[in-house]
Design brief:
The complex is a heterodimer of chains A (about 475) and B (about 550).
Chain A lengths: L2 E3 L6 E2 L6 H9 L5 E6 L2 H15 L6 E2 L4 H6 L2 H15 L3 E6 L1 H6 L3 H11 L8 E4 L8 H16 L10 E9 L5 H13 L3 E4 L25 H5 L4 E7 L4 H11 L3 E4 L5 H15 L5 H21 L3 E5 L2 H13 L3 E7 L13 E4 L2 H10 L4 E4 L4 H7 L3 E3 L17 H23 L32
Parallel strand pairs in A: 1-13, 3-4, 3-5, 5-6, 7-8, 7-9, 9-10, 11-12, 11-14, 12-13, 14-15
Helix pairs in contact in A: 1-7, 7-10, 12-16
Chain B lengths: L3 H9 L5 H4 L3 H6 L15 H9 L6 E5 L2 H5 L19 E2 L4 H6 L2 H15 L4 E5 L1 H6 L3 H12 L3 E5 L7 H15 L13 E7 L6 H11 L2 E7 L4 H5 L6 E5 L5 H11 L3 E4 L4 H17 L5 H27 L4 E5 L2 H13 L3 E6 L5 H11 L5 E2 L4 H9 L5 E4 L4 H6 L4 E3 L10 H16 L3 H6 L3 H13 L2 H6 L1 H9 L2 E3 L4 E2 H11 L4 H7 L8 H10 L2 H7 L1
Parallel strand pairs in B: 1-2, 1-3, 3-4, 5-6, 5-7, 7-8, 9-10, 9-12, 10-11, 12-13
Antiparallel strand pairs in B: 14-15
Helix pairs in contact in B: 4-10, 7-9, 10-13, 14-15, 15-20, 16-17, 25-28
Classes of the chains: A alpha/beta (about 475), B alpha/beta (about 550).
Chain lengths: ~475, ~550
Amino acid sequence: MALTTVPTKACAVNPLKMSQPIGGAFAFMGLRGAMPLLHGSQGCTSFGLTLFVRHFKEVVPLQTTAMSEVATVLGGYENLEQAILNIYNRAKPKIVGICSTGITETNGDDVDAYLKLIRNKHRQLAKLPLVYVSTPDFKGAFQDGWEKAVTRIVELLVEGPNVNGLRDSSRVNVLPGCHLTPGDLDELRAILEDCGLRPSFLPDLAASLDGHIPDEFTSTTIGGIGVDEIASMGRAGWTIAIGAQMRRAAEVMQAKSGVPFRLFERLCGLGPCDEFMTFVSEISGRPVPPKYRRQRGQLTDAMLDAHFHIGGRRLAIAAEPDLLYDLSSMLHEMGAQVRAAVTTTQSAVIERIKTNEVLIGDLEDLEELARTENCDLLITHSHGRQAAARLKIPFYRAGFPMFDRLGAGHQLSIGYRGTRDLIFDIANLGIADREENHQPTPDRWRAPVALPSRSGHLSSIGAAERSTA
Amino acid sequence: MSSLSATVQNIFNEPGCAKNGSKSEAERKKGCTKLLQPGSAAGGCAFDGAKIALQPFTDVAHLVHGPIACEGNSWDNRGAASSGSNLWRTAFTTDMNETDIVFGGERRLWKAIKEIVDKHDPPAIFVYQTCVPAMIGDDVNAVCKAASQRFGKPVIPINSPGFVGSKNLGNKLAGEALLEHVIGTREPDCTTPYDINLIGEYNLSGELWQVKPSLDELGIRILSCISGDAKYREVASSHRARAAMLVCSKGMINVARKMEERYGIPFFEGSFYGVQDSSDSLRQIARLLVERGAPQDLLGRTDAVIAREEARAWAAIKPYKSRFKGKKALLITGGVKSWSVVAALQEAGLELVGTSVKKSTREDKERIKELMGQDAHMIEDMSPREMYEMLKGAKADIMLSGGKSQFVALKAATPWLDINQERCHAYMGYVGMIKLVEEIDKSLSNPMWEQVRRPAPWEALARAKLHMQSPAAEITCEPALAETARRARKICHCNTVDLGTIEDAIYAHGLRSVEEVKEHTDAVGGCCKRRIEDILVSSPSAMLQAAE
């Protein structure tokens, strides 16, 4: 059981964390015809936009209420009103998702009241769903923003069970956490459909940020789940929530529509996949399709092949809680030791991570821990590249943002197939590192007298000065 | 120390800015940043601008005082190169939390500064003020002043809350901070008659180093560059330079002009993009230095270097001219580079179908007119949809722009080249020009384009089948069917509004403008604006009269 340590330092160095509002905006990007709107100054949106564009290499719709100095003093009502009208007239969205920021929260803008006023004043907005989420920058992190936005969407848009009556047991709701990539969602969809189920993903980033080329240019999101489909989610037979962060949204869904839910905290690794397939097979009333039996075999074989290279690795990992829990658990089950674990925000899963201590901190903390613990594998998002280069250890990119490699949206780490590929990727990194940086040399076994006390690092003496980043 | 609003006023009163000079007193007071349009604004805030301008200080610790969004969402996103320290790549932020908002963030800021001093001991710390601490009244100036005294090193407040304005204003606020706290606070170890400052050059992708060899050869020393590959000490002693060049950018004109005013350093605005502009800039530098007392022979030596480099560059570019024949480029970039890149592209033999002048000054526009002729297609503000239409309609063969609009081009299956801050190639000076041409060629001639533009084979098949079964023949001889088909033509593709609906609305309400049509139908009026105008023009007047 891991202890959670909260940092004492005043200065965050090389932040791991990103802000809540862009996490909320990210959730809205999985809705069709949506325009996420950050209620704050221009930079709040611009930074988030750049981040998403660098990660997905896609057009990303994201708007701002462009709070000026005067608006900040007088309150943001007019800016919000203008922004919504502008968006309505220009982009004709199906839904507008509004997230507050540090500046408007400090100001105390009562956005719920503003929205009521705006609706009263402009009749043409009567049917346009306006979903507001409070996401101050100075609280929580990216994952919290996502969690809140999805919960809010369920609260506001899912209709109760009495509408159009019947429940359809072949329909299943999926509430994915923000640690799943569009590639992961596609894999999940395939699994569920192969078992004869019809899934609705909320949000569904797979169709909006999977990098396909649309025939027409739109200024809102191009894919994702539609508002109508969300409304009808109350008629599904089951809700599957993925990641502890989605518990709340699933509970709200159940309270509102009576759809029972099952929470899967992890979907990476043999055990969690078995559990998931069994559940899917149960609710669909069908045996697990042969395709997945085959994939399971491949995964177990991959585990046998890779354990030589992953077993005993001293892992340093930093990620948002659910991703951290998912990846570190799988690698722990493959024999790696989690020696340094850093996360961004509090969560129920932290204490279940297989390490002594999880630090709520930044990448400087990770780097220091990795150095003192002699870690030989670093996993975090792209910002970890500098630390990995300084530490001269292999670096695997996971999570958001991943701006210095291609294909972030298609990275797959769930299901038997995803776990298999992930295991191979990480094992191969280890093999490449040994070949490139740890070739034996005549001096290798001769320890210099004045060597610092980092005894575990002897193996790298005389190795080429090559970074793996 | 003046207040932030006084500083902003002061910046707006920039006499060096031609645009500003031509305004009336009252207009000038209003300032030059247009009020941003909520719901359709893009671009960074003042903090973004300040950080961009100063981050290339390589040995300084950049500490962002604010909640996590300001630094957590934005760090490590630009590629300025450093010849020494890499401290600038480390992100420092106070990551303010709720408690700080309630009780004030000054204490945390103080501790953060202390931690940086203890851990890194940098020559200086830049502290960026952002929106939230500014709102709650954190006195960053006071904390910095106290910290400077306590730790015996410059701790410099950069007053740049995002809400005061745009990125461009932020550049200038950064410049003001340098003028107030940095420039002129140290003396250089030695001076030469060949010392220059480069202002507004950020050394992205190490571009500055493409130009430096020519300067080195002439014996010209870059005393300081503000702020590409800058070291704190160099900029602090930059007031001893003999001349300065404002590189392409109006972002820091306040620095150049005030240094001229305070220290008598003459400056000119120049560019190292394009062969001609590079030569002009070298000549100007030499001329200014000679005027300030450098030996006369510098002029002759400069001309010799220019002649040699130009000959080399032309020889390298020549083979491409024939390859680019008939190719058209669309240039979407900030004002800073528009004219200098226009020159560069024309040298390569490309035809320009348009260039954006969104952030350009009047002088910039004049220069573009000079280069592209009086009827140059200058785009004030182009929506992504319009760019897409232009590219999809093959009105341009390649788009050059910043990273954020790249997907507009790529989704239209059209070549695109990054000429903005996130690019990975350096295009400065004579070598850079050759590189730019090479990259354009690589992009234009890539065989991939042909493949991605080809529709999936089954789609072509399906279309052919549909065509065979289509009742086109029936339609042409049956007037009612023909009318239905005519009315079903899609006008607004974005919101699927057909011709009939628009005609009916025009008829029913007597509409006369696109705006009115937008009000009465679902038409977006963006890319379909032209088509709606055509309908309005061609609508029979009887129809309108009837409506009236």
